[in-house]
Write a structure and sequence with these properties.
Number of strands of chain B: 3
Shape of chain B: globular
Number of helices of chain B: 7
Structural class of chain B: mainly alpha
Order of helices and strands of chain B: HHHHHHHEEE
CATH superfamily of chain A: Metallo-dependent phosphatases
Structural class of chain A: alpha/beta
Number of domains of chain A: 1
Number of helices of chain A: 7
Radius of gyration of chain B: 17 Å
Largest sheet of chain A: 7 strands, mixed
Helix content of chain B: 40-55%
Oligomer: heterodimer
Radius of gyration of chain A: 18 Å
CATH architecture of chain A: 4-Layer Sandwich
Order of helices and strands of chain A: HHEHEHHEEEHEHEEEEEEE
Helix content of chain A: 25-40%
Strand order of the largest sheet of chain B: 1-2-3
Largest sheet of chain B: 3 strands, antiparallel
CATH topology of chain A: Purple Acid Phosphatase, chain A, domain 2
Distance between the termini of chain A: 32 Å
Number of strands of chain A: 13
Amino acid sequence: MSDFGMKDFGFSRRLLLKLPIGLGLTRAAVAQSPELQLPNGKDSFHFAVIGDTGTGGQAQYEVASQLAKSHEAFSFNIVTMMGDNMYGGESAKDFQRKFEQPYKPLLDAGVKFYASLGNHDNPSQANYEKFNMNGERYYSFKPRDGIRFFAIDSNYMDRKQLEWIDKSLNDSKEDWKIAFFHHPPYSSGETHGSSVQIRTVLEPMFLQHGVSLVLSGHEHFYERIKPQKGIPYFIVGSSAKLRRGNIEKTDLTAKGFDIDYAYMLCEIDKDKLHFQTISRAGKTIDNGMLDRPNTKSPAGPAK
Amino acid sequence: MRALFAAMTLSTLISNLALPADDPRLKDFTQRVQKYVDIRRAAKARFPEPMKGEKPEQIEAREKALVAAIRSARPMAKQGDIFSPTVAPMFVAILKNNLSGSESKDSRHVVKQGNPATETETGEKPPMIEVNAVYPKSASLSSVPPLLLLQLPMLPPDIEYRFVGRTLVLRDNLSNLIIDYLKEAAPPL
């Protein structure tokens, strides 16, 4: 097929996806409960991932409702947030409408949310009690032995933060080192695409210190990237915002979903990561299992 | 160039990009920023230390009080007090070097992300660029390319560079005050 033909096809597909014809169907299907496809082991570690959430709009509430339903079947204590936690104002009312109300069932159940900052977030969110950032733009936490999360502020990666990332990753003795932040180092998004500078500074450290998993948002869709230099990357940026038909055809994509809103559930069982991504309509759009990097075939050096 | 950076360890990257510490322009800029930090420290001392984990109302009240205290301590502050005529050309040159030409396309894209002049969401308003004005929380914040940040003079904690359009803004993270700015310092984005 000629280049022109491929581009022509891509344009038509995008145009079709941007038409609002599917809206009624997806809203009608909202009541469907997500069917759990994870092992749901008693001793495994469970968490959820949401991104680009802070609109206070209907889609955010609908995704939040599905997430709460998932929690009934798959008990997780932690939700990681990929940034853009608050679009527009950040008054007390905004925190209510764009965070506390939609996630009330989870907050009431004692689920802790851990936020990273996006380009629509004021850094003062670091002080907000329910984002558990402990007053820091970037931080790490260890929810259980063997697992540590690193929340990075990818909007403003100054020397101090880069040195902190390098040292914290180096000092971490946990098997699972999970980095999460707003801008995706790899992406097939038409609007933004891969954040190349972020990748330039972070990837060598990720490889050097054995980062096991990278989660991000920013692109308003879901994309599972084929492991890059041994590291799996996920984009979960459609938990309240959606860029319909925005995923371009690239070699990076293992699975993409840009026709409805989504969130992800994860389960770590020893050296395995099980994941299930669920749409606003409650449909499973991706699921699978990945071995922790460095347990089977070591990641190659940075090129 | 990027491929070269990608192969570097963090310490090599920093030593390759950072400005020489003995550059007199750097010293001048650092002293001016420090003067602001001293004013902020004195203003902060009048209020209880923020708790790690506050309610939105507490965050808002503390920021408002800090804004009032800092403004009253530097009521005559004006553009150029920190980005003085001595240092301004150095910033313009660094920005030109990092944001011009076809090889800087990625960096320009980073600067446009969250930049209130190029990317706004519903309910967001561009800030009014004035010294001592509050950068509103309803405005997004531009991302700043990490390789550019490694070349700009380092700032004390909670002071940061941001872009509004092509204007480089020096912003206080604790109060959200605009401390100074360099109008249209960046090349066309």
